[in-house]
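Notes from hallway chat w/ T.B., transcribed later so I don't forget. T.B. wanted the structure written out for a chain they're using in a teaching module, and asked if we could keep both sequence and structure tokens in one place. Agreed to drop them here.
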Amino acid sequence: MNASRPGASREDLMRLLDGEATPEERRAIQRRLDRSSELQREFAIFKGMKAHLRDLSFAPPRMRGSAWDRVRRQITQPLGWALLVSGTVAWLGYGAWVFAKSPTAVVAKLATGAVAIGILMLLAGVVLARVHEYKTDPYKDVHR
């Protein structure tokens, strides 16, 4: 115990609270606690902090979705993806039809087509690599 202070030190109070004090130290600290309302208040604060810390959890909080989250997930997202894909296919089809019917030279059409196909292949490669990385990522379930 702290000899320079007439009451018990914070370390003494924490050892008593954690059950680390010897029986002799426990009796001495308890006598000091009985005589000092200041120490009793500090000990009560430490007890409260210990109870709060015991209740802490490292698990991420469960996210509860609202009704609108379920509507978005079940209706809005699939509908948005369907519209995006169908619109893109229609737009690319129309663009290919206009491109094929244009009076541009065949070499220019082939070069432009090669650039477009190359860009699409690179984009598909990046997307596939990202999907593969997501499936094998050991940290995908770690939450902040």
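Follow-up for T.B.: The radius of gyration is 35 Å. Might be a good example for the class.
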